[in-house]
Each structure stands twice: as C-alpha cells, then as structure tokens.
Amino acid sequence: MSRIGRLPVLVPSGVQVNVQGSNVHIKGPKGEMKRTFSSLVGIALENNQVVVTRNSDNAEERALHGTTRAVIANMVHGVSSGFVVTLEVEGVGYRAEMEGKTLVLHVGYSHPVKVEPPAGIVFETDPKTRQIKVSGFDREAIGQVAAEIRGVRPPEPYHGKGIRYAGEKIRRKAGKAGKGAK
Fold this sequence. Notes:
Low-confidence stretches: none
Number of strands: 13
CATH superfamily of the largest domain: Ribosomal protein L6
CATH class of the largest domain: Alpha Beta
C-alpha cells in the first residue's frame, strides 16, 4: 500500500469539495479548481476528508494511487492558502520591475523582456532584494510560470549571473587561467 496514497486529505473549514466519480471540484477562498482523475482509483469524501483507494495491486493503479492523493492535497492547499515560488535576480545591472500586472525583466539583453501573468497568477517584485514572487492557487501553473521566467536567463556557472530559484545552489566552474603564467 502506498504510504502517501493511504493518508486522507483533511479538508479545512471554508473549503468545499465535490466528488462525482473521478471528477473532483474544489472551491475555497483563493479560487476554485476542477480536475478529472483516472477511473482506476476510487475517490470519496468521508467525514470531511478525501480518501483515495485502489482496487488491486496492479502496477498502474499503484502508480496512480499516491499521485492522485498528492494532486488532490495540492488542490486543497492551493484554494485554502495558496502557493508562492520565489526567484532571485543576480548580476550587475540585472533587475525586475512591474508595469501594472506585467513583469519586466532587464537581464542583459538589448531589450527588456515582458512576461504577462496567466489567469490566477500574480507577480510581485522587491527591488531591494531583487526577488520575484510568483503566487497563486494552482501549484502546477505556478511552477510552470516560474520555470519560464527562470528560462529567460538561467544562471550561468562562471559568474553565477541570471535568474535562479531562492536557495538554489549554482555549481560554479573555474574560469580561464590568467595571462603571465609562463
């Protein structure tokens, strides 16, 4: 039995969960999410908890058991309190700023790069710490948008310049040996 899959998902107050077969609709103060899961796993709402079960020890069902439970837990957490991913801008002259709701990145190109937020996602910047915060209620969408922002100028290994996740360690390489060593 999956250690993750057998744990029930607690539904906090203020969150409504509607389960109809393999369709799950969750509504909370931050937003609402709908998702259709595989019919190989059973999803039920019991005593203000979402319980995910499987019928057999088939390899495909075992794989879906823990994954389904984790996705439902992320949906419940997202609509109740939300998620935040923090990015750091590192480099001389590199900065991020807001133009309305649009994120504008100055990261060494001849032009500023503008990133429009998708629905349900909000950007915040702090010019003093040079951080970008991507927040919202859908964990998958936040991760995807943060990866796209990081992809504008990924950190390079020689000087460490670029956009990185907060706390990300960049493996640094030694540069060329200097002149004069003959």
